[in-house]
Each structure stands twice: as structure tokens, then as C-alpha cells.
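Example 3.2
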Amino acid sequence: MSQPQPGRALAFTLRCLPTAQQRARHMTTPGGFHRAYKSDAQEANERALEALLCPHKPPQPMNGGLELSFRAIFPAPKSCSKKEHAGMLRGTVCHTVKPDLDNLAKQIKDAMTRLQFWHDDRQVVRLICEKRYGEYPAWEVSVRRIGQGRGKHGAS
């Protein structure tokens, strides 16, 4: 897979339940130092997401200014009525429950940064994101170069 040219997107769908980046937990060590740690569940979610992302990783990190677009799709709850379920699938009933959209963005962006889809996440200059209901849980992801950057990772 080659680097997308400006305007052309690298697009893919990951068939899994989207998870959000959890808030960092802090602990104090016996020596009085504070350190942040991740729960086992958070680390497992990150590993699973990275495994699904790996086949879509470009051969070289992307350069320049990037647009990251994603849609986090959640299954409709089984406890809702048929009418409400239909509205969820049409998009007239919004996904207004947890997880928060900004935490979903952080999760996918951090995973893609660790896998080197780009050199640094500061290259993401436009973020378009949505969470909604659908038949099956998934991440629908698109990354496209929208221009050159300046500085260390700005070259084409």
C-alpha cells in the first residue's frame, strides 16, 4: 500500500466494538513517587485495536498535514423498542451515551500514532468524527493528506 497523495484517502473498516481511551489512573509508590498506569482492560483494548489496524498501516509514515475521519458504530441495545431501534439505524436517534466522542478520538489517534501511520499526531490538523448506532459494531476510518506541513515532518 503506497502513501496516499493529497486528496486521496486511506480508508478501511475495523469490525470491532469501539472503545474509548480511559482516564489515566495514578498511584503512589512506596518511595512517594506518583506514576500513571493503565488498567489491564485498557491495555487489552489497545492491543486488540492495534492488531486490527496493523494490516492497514502504510509502508512509510504519512507526511504533511492530515485529516483523520472516523465513525464509531455501536450496536443498538437489545432492550429498546422496534421503533426506537429503527430510529437508531436511520440516525434519527443519536448515540448520546458513553463513551464520549473525544475519548474515542484519543483512542484511535493514539493507536495509529503508536503504529506509525504518521510521524507525530500533531500532523492531524483536521479531525472529523461521529458516533452512531448501526447493525454491527465497527470503526470506519479514513486518513488523507490535505497539504504539506512545515518543519520536521512536512516534506512530501
